[in-house]
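Quick review question:
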């Protein structure tokens, strides 16, 4: 997990995972999930800094790909500004039976 801070406050987080891709000879890739920035710290470069730190972590781990998904259309420009491109569709089903938006 990455944390972003301003002063003494944590204003952003991102979860990182580095799995092996069995379809590509077990080469590692970086999964970035749950990129969250406090509403009061948005538009200040916090999300971009988190994604840059995630990329550096992936490169240090030998990853040649970064994957992330976002379901908030307001966040899409942030990912694009960080150099990510929409590339696939994400499908999901909640296994606990709860309906979520």
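Suggested answer, residue by residue:
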């Amino acid at each position: 997990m990455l944390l972003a801070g301003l002063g003494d406050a944590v204003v952003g987080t991102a979860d990182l995972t580095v799995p092996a891709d069995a379809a590509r000879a077990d080469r590692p890739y970086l999964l970035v999930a749950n990129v969250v920035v406090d509403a009061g710290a948005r538009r200040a470069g916090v999300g971009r800094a988190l994604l840059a730190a995630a990329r550096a972590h992936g490169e240090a781990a030998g990853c040649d790909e970064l994957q992330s998904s976002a379901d908030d259309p307001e966040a899409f420009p942030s990912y694009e500004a960080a150099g990510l491109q929409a590339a696939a569709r994400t499908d999901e089903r909640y296994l606990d039976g709860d309906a979520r938006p």
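Why it works: The beta strands are 2-6, 9-17, 20-21, 27-28, 30-37, 66-68. The longest strand covers residues 9-17.
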